[in-house]
Amino acid sequence: MPQEPAPPAGAFVPPPGFRSGYAAICGYPNVGKSTLLNALLNQRLAIATPKPQTTRRRTLGILTTQAAQMIFVDTPGILDPRYGLQESMMVQVRQTMREADLLVYVTDVRRPRLAPGVAAAAQEKGVLVALNKADLLRRPEECLPAIEQLRQGVPQAEFFAISALRGRGLEPLLAAITAHLPPGPPYYPPEQVTEHPERFFVGELIREAVFAQFWEEVPYGTEVAIDEFRERGGAGQKDWIAATVFVENESQKGILIGKQGAAIKRLGEAARVAIEEFLLRPVFLELHVRVLPNWRRDPRALRRLGY
Ligand SMILES: Nc1nc2c(ncn2[C@@H]2O[C@H](COP(=O)(O)OP(=O)(O)OP(=O)(O)O)[C@@H](O)[C@H]2O)c(=O)[nH]1
Ligand SMILES: [Mg+2]
Question: Which of 16, 97, 142, 155 is exposed most, by the fewest CB atoms within 10 A?
Fold first, then answer.
C-alpha cells in the first residue's frame, strides 16, 4: 500500500480527536472580557482599561493546545446603542454570538446579570458563564448566590468562578471550552496568535493610552487611524509610524494637545513605550490630532473609520 507522504518537518499534525472552533467572549461593559482574552492567551493582545466601552471592534485571539484550537473573539460590551458607533459595536456582538460555536459569557461575580440574547443562544450552543473578579470576594462561597441567580435564566450553562486579572480558575474553563468545540482540524497554523495586522494593535495601544490619560467624554470622542507604518529593518533603523487621533470637536482637540503640546507629548510617549513592548522593537511614533466633527454619530465618518 502506498504510504502517506510524511508531513514537512515541524508541521503540526493534529492528534486524533482534535477539536477546533470559535468561542465568543461576550458580556456587559467592563466585566473583564478583554482581560480574560489576554489571560487565556497568556499574552497582552486586547486593550483593557478601568473605563467601560474600551473595546470597539471584535478582536481575535488563537490558542492551540495538544487537544484543540480555540479561536477566541473578544467583543465590545453589550449596551443599548444610543449612536452610530455603538450600533456598529452591537452589530459585531450579535454577529459574533450568532456565528460562534460556543459562548463564554463573562459577568462580574458581584453584580451577576444575564444580557439579552444569552438565554436564546443557550438553546443552540454551549454557554459557559465566567463569574469574573472572584478575587474581590472575601470568601469563595460568596459566588454561589450568583450561580443560583443566573441558573434561572440559563439552566443548561456551566459556571466558573475566575479571576482574569490574577489568572485564577482558568484551567477548568479551558477544559470546558475544549470539550464544547466540534471535532475538526485547526483553522490556523498552531503558532499563530491572531489574524489582525500589527497596525490594528498599534492603533488600539494608542487608544488605550488615550483611555488612561484623559477623562469624561474625551476617550469616547477619540478614534485612531494608522496613516503609515514603515518597517525599516536595518540595524539602528526604527520603524516609523504615523497616526491620526480623531476627535469630535475643537474643545477635545485642545484638551488632547494640552498647554504647549504637553498632553499630546505625554500621550505619544506612553503609546510608543506600549507599542515597543508589543512589537518587541523600537519605533518612532508621530501623532496628529484632527477634528472629524461628530464622528460617533455621522454615518459617513463611521464608514471612513471602518465601522
Ligand atoms: N479585580 C479584578 N479586576 C478585573 C478582573 N478582570 C478585569 N478586571 C478589571 O476590570 C476592568 C475592565 O477590564 P476589561 O478587560 O477592559 O473589561 P471589558 O469587559 O473588556 O470592558 P469593555 O471592553 O469596555 O466592554 C479593568 O480595570 C480590569 O483590570 C479580575 O478578575 N479582578
Ligand atoms: Mg474589552
Answer: 16
